[in-house]
Automatic annotation (TrEMBL):
Keywords of the record: DNA integration, DNA recombination
CDD domains found in the cross-reference section: INT_Rci_Hp1_C
Protein name: Integrase
Gene3D superfamilies tied to this protein: Intergrase catalytic core
Pfam families found in the cross-reference section: Int_N (PF24624), Phage_integrase (PF00589)
Organism: Lelliottia aquatilis
Superkingdom as given in the UniProt entry: Bacteria
Residue ranges of domain Tyr recombinase in the record: 160-317
Length: 325
């Protein structure tokens, strides 16, 4: 009998999955059902020898990155970019073995990066990419150690200021822009699009006074109505791309010159913030804004809630000073 009762001590599994000459497995369980389940697993999987501790994976991080790229990374939409960043992280870490990428070692690495003036968000992105790579390799059965970064939390980020353009600032910016940069800016201000989403737009994505963004950050398509006048303006010409002469660097320089109040690092993204801020200030619905911006979570959109004219308005009428006399 491979399962026997131990009385109040539970149940014992005593089995040799590979026969009399094979390894003997003895294991205690609280209930008989658990013992039976384990017995079935041991017999069914004895050829895999999953109960045997495997040696630590001594592959180099370089080889694991190559393996990730060959089996998974090359198929991802942002795979090329992530591959480049992973190799850069590997180089900065000193081309370590996988077993040397410990929580302590990576914590020291990111502390060094911060001391060099690298933004916390950038360091967190490096952390996230490396952690995701280990998870994928484990999922594919190509890395059997524990993910070394699972227990290491990302750095906390300070809440960043969301800059937006006032109506006067919008007039200054649009007066300074011209050509495809002007058209793209108007489209971003009208739909909350990211600058690169507008830059990749093709003529077939504008139909019946609606713009459909397909190459988005989260991969989800979204369609936003625009005015007939704007639709006519941005579809002038015959080329496949709507804005073939768009110039991000020029747009950024103009923004810094005519709207120096924009927080550092936001550049053309200020158009997206401006749309969302004015949308809420004009009485827009936060759930509608979520759909327009393409946010997967309402928490992302809630950063604009305070622009609503009704935001926490009860604080005026329900505070303890009201009717105090």
């Amino acid at each position: 009998m491979t399962i026997k009762s131990l009385g109040s001590g539970g149940w014992m599994v005593d089995v040799r999955p590979q026969g009399r000459t094979g390894k003997r497995i003895r294991k205690k369980f609280t209930t008989k059902a658990e013992a039976q389940q384990y017995e079935r697993w041991a017999i069914a999987t004895h050829h895999n020898k999953e109960w045997v501790d495997k040696p630590r994976d001594r592959s180099s991080l370089t080889n694991l990155i190559t393996l990730w790229w060959d089996r998974c990374g090359s198929t991802l939409k942002d795979g090329d970019n992530r591959h480049i960043k992973l190799k850069a992280t590997d180089r900065r870490l000193g081309f370590p073995r996988a077993i040397d990428v410990t929580p302590e070692a990576f914590a020291q690495y990111r502390a060094q990066r911060i001391s060099e003036g690298i933004a916390r968000k950038t360091v967190n992105n490096e952390h996230r990419d490396l952690k995701a790579m280990f998870n994928k390799l484990r999922e594919l059965g190509l890395f059997h150690d524990q993910n070394p970064l699972t227990e290491l939390s990302e750095l906390k980020l300070p809440q960043t200021e969301l800059g937006f353009l006032t109506k006067d600032a919008i007039r200054r910016v649009l007066s300074a822009f011209e050509g495809d940069n002007l058209k793209a800016a108007k489209l971003c201000l009208s739909t909350g699009a990211r600058w690169n989403e507008a830059a990749r737009l093709t003529r077939d994505r504008v139909y019946s006074d609606r713009v459909t963004y397909t190459e988005t950050k989260n991969g989800q398509h979204r369609t936003v109505p625009i005015t007939a006048d704007l639709a006519k303006e941005i579809t002038e010409g015959e080329g496949r791309l709507l804005f073939p002469d768009i110039d991000y660097d020029l747009a950024r320089k103009i923004l810094k010159r005519v709207a120096p109040e924009i927080p550092a690092g936001q550049a053309t993204h200020v158009f997206r913030h401006t749309f969302a801020s004015h949308f809420m200030a004009n009485g827009g619905n936060i759930l509608v804004l979520q759909r327009i911006l393409g946010h997967s979570s309402i928490n992302q959109t809630m950063v604009y809630a305070h622009f609503s004219p009704d935001h926490l308005a009860d604080a005026v009428t329900l505070n303890p000073l009201v009717n105090l006399d």
